[in-house]
Design brief:
mainly alpha
Length: 72
C-alpha cells in the first residue's frame, strides 16, 4: 500500500484552516443567505425549525473553511 496517502486531520487549535475554491465558497454562501431569508419568512412550526437547522448546519460547514482570496 505504498500508494495510499495519509491525511492527518488538523485539530481545532492547530494547523491551517481548510481551503475551498472561490466559486464553491460563493455558491455555499449564497445558499446560506437564501436559507436564512426563507427561514425569516416562514411561519413558526416544524418547517421553520428544519430551515433553521439546515442554515445552522451550512453555516458550520462554511465556518470550517478559510474564505478564499477574492471572495466577498
Amino acid at each position: 500500500m505504498g500508494d495510499v496517502i495519509s491525511f492527518e486531520q488538523q485539530g481545532p487549535n492547530g494547523g491551517e484552516p481548510a481551503h475551498i475554491d472561490v466559486r464553491s465558497f460563493s455558491l455555499l454562501a449564497i445558499l446560506l443567505h437564501d436559507l436564512q431569508q426563507h427561514h425569516q419568512t416562514e411561519q413558526p412550526g416544524p418547517r421553520a425549525n428544519e430551515l433553521k437547522r439546515l442554515a445552522s448546519s451550512l453555516d458550520a460547514v462554511l465556518a470550517r473553511f478559510e474564505s478564499p482570496e477574492g471572495a466577498a
